[in-house]
Amino acid sequence: MLPWAAGLALTLTCATALAQEATPATGTGTTDAAAPIEVQAIRVTGVGDHPREQIDPARLQALADARLRALGGGTVPAQLSFAQLQQIADTLTQAYRQAGFLVARAYLPVQTLGLDQVVEIRVVEGRVGKITVEGTRRYDDRLIASPALALQGQILRQQDLQSALLYTRDLPGVSATSVLKPGANPGETDVVIQASEERPLQVSVGASNYGTPSIGRYRAQLGVDWNNPLGLGDHLSASYAYALDPANTWQGSLAYQVPIAGVDGLSASASYTRSVVNLDNGAFAALDIQGPTQQSALGLDWKFVNSDAWRVQSWLHLVKESSRLQGLGVLLSKQKFDVAELGTSVRHDDRRLHAIDLLQLSVRGALDDDSPQTDYLYARHDRHFTVARLSYTRLQGLTATQRLQLRVNGQYSDDTLTPLEQFSLGGPTSVRAFPLGAALGDRGFDSGLEYQVDAPGFASAASPFGGRAWGQLLTASVFYDYGRVYPNGANRAVYDSVTTFEGAGVGLSFRLPDWHGLSFDLAAAKPTGTTKPSDGKDVRYWARFGLTF
């Protein structure tokens, strides 16, 4: 029996951002919040149905029932204090927190305990009120807030808010965080997006020896990136590379990308690349072979999954490719065709295993081929070719300063391809013990296994560069590369039936982000298999540096 004539009033003050109860009615009997009361059951109200997060009325009711029995020593009715009832409410709140509901809370509303001895625990799941933006300079607030606007009126989940912020951060030159504030209406929480913007214009310069003796051993590079030039969240980039020793090759490119309003992660892109080669040295000097290669593309890209753990993007690009080479005033080769490419990329950040996986798969097919039937340099290619390409990288953390990286790049086709579509083997991003593009094939792959360690033996020591730890600036590596290419059809008369490259080496990488993004990469690699480089080098060095202003 209850010791009070009119029951017991139970009250709890909720968080400011949640709904507030009306002033409790005065009970007719004496109440004592510290005294235990007899509770037959708990009734949980206000729970929505959220199957993705495994939150629904039945699950939350079962959780409350289990907690009631535990506090009652396994039997009901149970003698519980107000603090113990609050523990049951806290258990429900914790279930919501673990499911990603940022402001959901279970609480004890003002109530009079009836003869059925049932105590109500009410849940306010918390909905999004206003979305506001702070800190913008050149960007329109509506553009920054756009990914989060769909959350208004919805229950506030951590995953949804994180995804909206990630879409905002995809805008060029923008970083964003969020602050939650009490809303104007009961149960509402306002979201304030605090944005910061980088400089709209960045210029990068660099140099490398990522070339060959025929097209220039060294390259000087200049790049320009312009964030939000038209105020649409767009991005314009341009680059130019000039070859040295000999100075006979250059390449320029221009690319533009703009988000499409109304669909998060969807953007349209256009690009143009042109290079000109002049083989005026070595074995080809007498032929004076020269000519341009160009590529233009239009496309749609859609990042339709965007979370801390998973990012998935697909694209459809239409590409026009052409190349022309002439020597001694005679047209030796002309290739011109249209290609459609459909692809998907996936990034997975595995926090539990301290790893990052990157997977990319694409299929390219020729739509139209205007190449002449006669070609004096290359074998006749299939005019309606299909190519599948795969790229996979896994970066596995071992300790705080050590990592293991595995990469595999491959291409498969049953068709005879032109050099523009063939798989290239050798170079600083392939098998590093061999020259750039030392072997071509219609099918092929390259792979590498690399052990990386930050400033081995002195990672925690302070550097003279602003006192930053050496482990943040310097990385050493040991690697092994392996790759193969195979020709198809008419190309078998030109290339070996299989070409295998393999090699091992060491690398060093230095980064100084506080000083114009200074970067320097150095690698040395030695062939380890039976195939020897055509230029006879037993050890090959690759070097690159860059600055950003």
TrEMBL record:
Coiled coil: none annotated. Residues 1-19 form the signal peptide. Residues 54-126 form the Polypeptide-transport-associated ShlB-type domain. The keyword Signal applies. Keywords: Cell outer membrane, Membrane, Signal, Transmembrane, Transmembrane beta strand. GO terms for biological process: protein secretion by the type V secretion system. The keyword Glycoprotein does not apply. One of its GO terms (cellular component) is type V protein secretion system complex. Residues 187-509 form the Haemolysin activator HlyB C-terminal domain. One of its GO terms (molecular function) is protein transmembrane transporter activity. PANTHER family: HEME_HEMOPEXIN TRANSPORTER PROTEIN HUXB, SLR1661 PROTEIN. This is BamA/TamA family outer membrane protein.
